[in-house]
Write the structure tokens for this entry.
Amino acid sequence: MASTNATMGPGAAQAGAPAAAGGMPPPGALPALDDTVGAILIGTFVSLMLYGLVIHQAYRYFRMYQNDIALIKTFVITMLVVETVHIVFCMHMIYYYLVTNYFNPAVLQNGVWSMDAQPVLSSIGIFVSQSFFAYRVYMISPKYRILVAVSVLCTLLAIGFTSAATYESVRHVSYAGFRSYTWLDSAAFAASVGSDILTTSVLIFTLKRSRTGVKRTDHIVDRLILYTVNTGLLTSICNILALVLGLAQPGNMIYIGVAIISTKVYANSLLAVLNTRRSLAASDVATSGAMGLSGVANATRMTSAEVWNVHVPTSMQDSDLSDTAIEMKFKTQTDSSIA
């Protein structure tokens, strides 16, 4: 994600002006707040709401999918820890500027440790989410492993750019001193956008080729594509918006507010994909018997690549329903009449 460093408004240059009567700064002494700390405040408000949704989805996941493999649980736990630390840092940053230093507007010209750490935390959260989606694509079709590797490389590049941005923000205490390094933020956004587009495109292409000609199976593929587009589209929109704002208006913090929101969108996308597996399976298993064994076999082959560590046999009993698949796994009851 992008660094949370930017040059304050024109009024910042007057922060050292003498205070007016009563101890309050004279008019014009305060930096412009609407497009600086105000943008971060709004971003934190929205991010807090999305964090609440992350907690809800994580709770729902651990209640519904207790038998998932350790790797998937590791993705979820890591994402939850990173997002919790991220939102705590956001709250500290806002409290530091708007409460602790309420009567000290000159502080608004400089960074704080929680602000400097924002970009690295955000990029780590994106890396966890994109690694999950990249591995998911690899499990569907290993022949795209080169594209998967490129997608992961893009997220690693984003971490590199944000780490460099954090280093420069610590070295240059003032926002004015950091302004010449804001291109690092833009580069990180661009790398994240590239990873989003690549992963989503490969997954959609693979699912499109999974069409079997069976109406029910194709309906499931269409639903998977819809989920893929929705999750990939939201994260891409956030990153593209932050990239455009960062390039067009590097002197304010509007793009930083968008960047704060973006990391929570990634976390919710990951958890939404995991939590929709059971609803997808439940809506289609009920009618899968009408497809006959050939239709079920085609559907199973289409989705079995998304099962991480469970072999999908030709026929399975309804009572054996498992949720280890990334999206879903078909189960059907076989009897002599179908055979």
